[in-house]
Amino acid sequence: MDKIFSGISKFQKSVYPKNEELFHKLAGGQSPEALFITCADSRVDPMMITQTEPGDLFICRNAGNIIPPHVPDAGGVTATIEYAIGALNIEHIVVCGHTDCGAMKGAMDRDSLADFPHVRAWLGFSEAAVKIVNERDTNASEEERLNA
User: Fold this and answer.
1) What is the arithmetic mean of pLDDT over 99-124?
2) Pseudo-torsion of CA 29, 33, 38, 41, nearest 10°?
3) Is residue 98 annotated as involved in ligand binding?
4) Per-residue model confidence (pLDDT) at position 63
5) Is residue 101 part of an annotated ligand binding site?
6) I want to staple 36 with a disulfide (CB 3.0 to 4.6 A). Which of 57, 80, 86, 89 is the partner?
């Protein structure tokens, strides 16, 4: 936690003052170019990957960068998509996967997730994609299927 608190302090003392004009502009509203849906994996940094600045991306992160089916119940991903399109008029949606995704490993072997019932249920939304990958090339290695 010391690193996190130190980072916040550095942001307040150094980064914010150097970018104060940008942050004042963003305080009045946002008009991001794209909705960027990606994994919650700590190794994935959307702004670093895309070399964007605050205000450029509307970001939604979850385990496995999954977009669940639309249902009447509210959900964080569907609410984010609805707001991005309806309120922010975002025209572009990027779904960004990454190498060695633990969520996708779990999706390919949901039986191994008995101790994680919520993760298991969440990854069930990717069942159709896993089925397609498995049927497309029955001779593919586990790594090839994971990358697909």
Assistant:
1) 95
2) -60
3) yes
4) 97
5) yes
6) 57
Cβ atoms within 10 Å, residue 42: 6
The residue ranges of every structural domain in the chain are 1-28, 29-147
Measured distance between the N- and C-terminal CA atoms of the chain, rounded to whole angstroms: 36
Residue in the block written with tokens 């922010």: 88
* Separation of alpha carbons 9 and 77, rounded Å: 31
**What is the side-by-side order of every strand in the sheet holding 57-62?**
57-62, 34-39, 92-96
Domain 29-147 has CATH 3.40.1050.10: yes
Q: Are 123 and 103 in contact (CB under 8 A)?
A: yes
When pLDDT is averaged across residues 77-82 and rounded to a whole number, the result is 96
Share of the chain above pLDDT 70, in %: 100
Q: Which residues of the chain form beta strands (DSSP E)?
A: 34-39, 57-62, 92-96
- Whether the per-residue pLDDT at 137 is higher than 90: the answer is no
pLDDT in tens, 28-76: 999 999 999 999 999 999 999 999 999 999 999 999 999 999 888 889 9
